[in-house]
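Hey, weird one. I pasted the Multicopper oxidase family protein sequence into the form twice and got a warning about non-standard characters only the second time. First submission, copied straight from the form history:
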Amino acid sequence: APKRRINRVNLTRRHLLAGSGAVLAASALPRASRAAPVSLEARTARVQLTPETYPATEVWGYDGRSPGPELRLRQDERLQRRLVNRLAQPTTIHWHGIRIANAMDGVPGLTQQAVPPGQSFDYDFVLPDAGTYWYHAHQASAEQVARGLSGPLIVEEAEAPEVDHDLALMLDDWRIDPATGQIADDFGNLHDLSHAGRYGNLVTTNGAFDFARDLRPNDRLRLRLINAANARIFELGLSGLEGWVVALDGMPLPAPRPLTEALVLAPAQRADLIVDVTAKAGETAWLARAERDGAVGQARFPVAGTGTKPRRDAPAPLPPNPRMEVTGLADARSISFRMEGGAMGRMQAAVLDGKRQSFRDLMQAGQFWAFNGVVGRTETPLVTAARGETLRLPIVNDTAFPHAMHLHGHHFREVRSDGTLGPMRDTLLVMSGETREIAFVADNPGDWLFHCHMLSHAAAGMTTWLRVT
Ligand code: C2O
Ligand code: CU
């Protein structure tokens, strides 16, 4: 218990340093408060994303910031937030990776109506799993997320590992018009829709191109990495730091995995790392990312002072989350799932709005991709599962591009070709030409999206859904 209290003090101090009074106020609310929920306002804001030779950039953010405020609660707590829409267009919030009640999932036209400008919607749900999650707009998300509507959602374990700093780092990728310093307004760009998605020209960590944080020798950190980019796949590594992956997409690994090779983080994926400072005072440690011509800094950690602790032993695994096992694989129903289309693909035609159309006609409609020959979300689900049924989906990527497939409301495991199961995830990166099978227990009733998280792809056809009755 004394350990936990120390943790709390650190967190409070960190929030104060970050100036996030709103987060403190929210967590200080009594759990069963009958007062109006704390609001989360979607509105425009000006943020200094770029070097100061450029003006501040107008973004769409939550509570005037992008990333939005860090929402940090305990496992099994209830999150209550009133989305207030101060934008000029409708919006919703999706709570990515949470095994949530369907009505709270934030998908317009499937689980709720989009919230019109000037109106609000109360989100209210329990957080069954500890881990690193995020929240983002789910209306016109290729534009709204690219403009900044996302933020970290952290669910703390009852017994969290002891660290000196617990840092959520949202990695993002912005397309900035170099003439104005503003977000490029080309959301209908056919090249993005049909190729790798909307890549940017400015990569940030927590909204800063030059994110830095001071550390001491031997400090231990928990880094909660979140890829909030529309399309960029990050390949990350450490310098002056020794690290272990302890969780992926919020879910603890049974054994921490030493980070010896690049960590690949596709859009919407998360990784929790435990990281020890090995750099000496006066040196700089880095979280770095691979670029075509070598590694560049993603987050800078100047090391100074004297460490108060000796180097620690390798971290223990995080406590597992409840009720998560994939069982019944042998008698599971298998649903074939083929991704087709895009530039340099071989899709000739597909069904859009109930009609078979040529690739050329689909292009005219700004649609480029299909799942099982069908473009975009249809009236009927891809599959209807009985609650508790185990489903298997061998995902065939018959396109020239990678795709990050995200399932709402559930986590799945990969069934590897040797029959072993991969880690629990909610988003799987499937490279061009690959077949990767996932399996999950459809135990959460409702209507759930299954889509590519390269958001331009989702907008251009890579969206379907399934129903759990
Ligand atoms: Cu994070 Cu449907 O998405
Ligand atoms: Cu895709």
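That's the output from the first submission. The warning seems to come from a hidden character in my clipboard, not from the data itself. The radius of gyration is 22 Å.
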